[in-house]
Design goal:
The structure is a homodimer. By secondary structure, the first copy, chain A, is mainly α. Chain A contains 7 helices and 2 strands. In chain A, helix 1 packs across helix 5, helix 2 packs across helix 5 and helix 3 packs across helix 4. The structure holds a DNA duplex (23 and 23 nucleotides).
DNA sequence: TATTGTTATACTCTATAACTATA
DNA sequence: TATAGTTATAGAGTATAACAATA
């Protein structure tokens, strides 16, 4: 069977992303978090007081789809909502949320390390710069 | 707003993949095909007589999820089913399917070119080898 | 008038289990 | 008994439109 797609950058990108995403999801399972949840917790910690809208913009998640995620964080006691004005609120990690976030960051470190160690050394340093050129433009 | 994730390979991979995937989907819109459809047509052409199961294995798509895709190709007149034995059949492109496949390959060429031209030259040659190391292991 | 959070909804993609007919 | 194709279905993830409250 000839796989004529393997050397196409777009195809390789999709397959590599899906594979690494699945691996990261498995790594997060003990925390009952999905990759998107993990990203959100880390960003809330680094940007205390950020609004759901702004957070959604950073992660390319629509306002409407943020609601159930933020609600779940609230129910789990991971975040606090602090009213900014009458219609919007800022998000901050609770103590429990901060503890979970520490575990998330550990999982991320493990994940990123596993990714890098798979890449032949001579290509390693080029991956992130190449990828950043693709989505930040 | 501090985006502490941008330099993580896993995150950069996901964002780059999603962005390029969306761009490719837009490029395929005139053909009324999704990226997965495009991959399938090209693989059928390169592997005439391949079964849906084998095709699904190459693309990491489950047997059950192949059914509606293959059915649609059939309805569009893009493929022919040739019985291999009583329970399985091989897929081949029809003349119309071959014509559509040519357009698909053109779209792929455009897409891959757009990807590559965005990447700074010194990183360019490293992308595909790095990505292949991630999902073929 | 524009924006924030929200609700409801629909559509795609993917995953699972079970069935049938054939090998 | 194992396999190929199929059916039905459920769960994510994502997209859209509309609404209330507020700026």
């Amino acid at each position: 069977m000839r796989d004529v797609l393997v050397d196409l950058p777009g195809y390789a990108l999709r397959r590599a992303s899906a594979s690494m995403q699945a691996e990261f999801a498995a790594l997060l399972m003990p925390l009952a978090l999905r990759p998107t949840d993990a990203s959100m917790l880390v960003l809330i910690e680094a940007n205390a007081g950020i609004t759901p809208s702004a957070l959604g913009q950073m992660l390319a998640i629509q306002r409407a789809n943020m609601v159930p995620i933020v609600s779940r964080f609230d129910e789990c006691g991971y975040i606090k909502r602090i009213a900014l004005d009458g219609r919007s609120f800022g998000l901050t990690l609770s103590d429990e949320g901060t503890r979970v976030c520490a575990k998330v960051k550990l999982a991320m470190k493990t994940h990123e390390h596993r990714i890098m160690e798979r890449i032949p050394e001579k290509h390693r340093a080029h991956l992130v710069p190449a990828l950043k050129a693709l989505w930040s433009s």
